[in-house]
Amino acid sequence: RGPDAFTATGQPSGETAAARAQGGEFLTTATGTRLPDTDHSLKAGVRGPVLLRDHHLREKITHFDHERIPERVVHARGAAAHGVFRAYGTAATVTRAAFLAKNVETPVFVRFSTVLGSRGSADTVRDTRGFATKFYTSEGIFDLVGNNIPVFFIQDAIKFPDVIHAGKPHPDREIPQAQSAHDTFWDFVSLHTEATHHTIWNMSDRGIPRSFRMMEGFGVHTFRLVAEDGGTVLVKFHWKPKAGVHSLVWEEAQLLGGVDPDFHRRDLADAIEAGAFPEWELGVQMFPDTQDQTYEGIDLLDSTKIVPEELAPVQPVGLMTLNANPVNFFAETEQVAFHTGHLVPGIDVTDDPLLAGRMFSYLDTQISRLGGPNFDQLPINRPHAPVNDMLRDGMHQTAVHAGVAPYRPNSLDGGCPFHAPDGYVEVPFPVAAGPRGRLAPASYDDHFSQPRLFWLSLSPVEKEHVIAAYTFELSKVFEQTIKERQLQVLARIDPVLCGEVAAGLGLPVPEGVPGADPAPSPALSQVGRTWPVAG
Ligand code: HEM
């Protein structure tokens, strides 16, 4: 593989940049032949016809015809930046990952995104935000592919196509906010109550962040860190923005969606250009690596659950600073390929069934999105560690591999490459025995205690915003039965929440809902009703 095309600050480096710059004295074809004229096609006579033999015309138009690649199936709209991560060294006792050793500086590339909108959609919509970080470490690439919400909609990746089908624009009209699209989303989440926790975060102010610079990020799953001596701990990763967590209010988000649909990407690029570099502290919540993989009764392999920070404080392990905008959106922001399987020694995954599906999905989708299996050779995806693999050929291969024996051991190319004694090892965590089946632990059935915890943690104004969001979104649902079923879900979170939303929708409060909590949270008398009541 060639030299890195981008420096740590995002500037194209060395030969690659020079070769690609549009700065030469003369225009050429793709194959380097100088062009005297790129403004007129080759014709027989002044008024044509245009001749088929005009290769320059065909090359120019053919290349243009193929300029677009498929957008990401989810997280299609994003904005990104380069930066650097400096480790405090506080994690060095629990992980042998070299980039977490004291004062080690590692180049990073971060892509923020919405989940459901297409590439051209608006930035300020109510949605989850992606927060994906590529660490170009000395030991290979580590990707932390997280979101700005600490829990996920589903517990098992087998439901991912279903939840996305329900949330994407409706198949007939392709209108994201159409009446019918609201129906599919609320149909899904009211029938799959494991989504209740993520949904209430979406309906809170977290669903409409003020800026990418003011969002938290979460690895969501529990990961396993491995120390030099082989000892392990379980962790959850958190990004804490130095600028604090801030949100828009709904009316601002709506106005910005029309006035400046690029609000978040503009904000990020402008801040970096002005030298106001956004910063986040990376932290971990740490748990003992016990056989049952629970902490204080919370299942650490259930991605719909958090561990409250009161039970496990977030311990800072380093600081990330974003200090350079991409030079070329397509080459960097669009072609970057994150993967939960990009791990370095000292960091391992757990058996969270949601994570297991992600370990398959990213490479699979990128083969189709980026046109074959060689996208790791694209400048933005190249590791900053030496690569010596036995992967060969394939669509868009750009490396010229020497040697004749891409297998090992061999007796032709000197018998190499050797296995690295200090290389990446999956932790031999014992697998619990049991019957084979499409199974889930009983703890996965608790869908309401944590949404209630979240609701109770909110201030009165934040609660008002949640009520307003549920009321507004459900007012766009056409099917009465879906609204009624969602009110039953809300009754199981909190009677006050349910009652206020029901009143806003002009519907009766559901009675006798099994599992509904008898003790309502305090009434919201301090704050007047400020949201538009559905008509
Ligand atoms: C893309 C996060 C669950 C499949 C992304 C991106 C993020 C993300 C941040 C955008 C990456 C970028 O900026 O390029 C998450 C989180 C999840 C989750 C935090 C749960 C905790 C899943 C699951 C699947 C999945 C369960 C499938 C089984 C995908 C796919 C893409 C994607 C196919 C597009 C990738 C590409 O085209 O490069 N995800 N995701 N995700 N995710 Fe997830």
Automatic annotation (TrEMBL):
EC code(s) of this entry: 1.11.1.6
Cofactor(s) required, per the database record: heme
Residue intervals of the Catalase core domain: 28-416
Lineage top rank: taxon: Bacteria
Alphabetical UniProt keywords: Heme, Hydrogen peroxide, Iron, Metal-binding, Oxidoreductase, Peroxidase
Chloroplast among keywords: no
Keyword Magnesium: no
Molecular-function GO term, any one: catalase activity
Catalytic reactions on record: 2 H2O2 = O2 + 2 H2O
Protein family (similarity comment): Belongs to the catalase family. HPII subfamily.
Function of the molecule: Decomposes hydrogen peroxide into water and oxygen; serves to protect cells from the toxic effects of hydrogen peroxide.
Protein name: Catalase
Phylogenetic placement of the source organism: Bacteria, Bacillati, Actinomycetota, Actinomycetes, Streptosporangiales
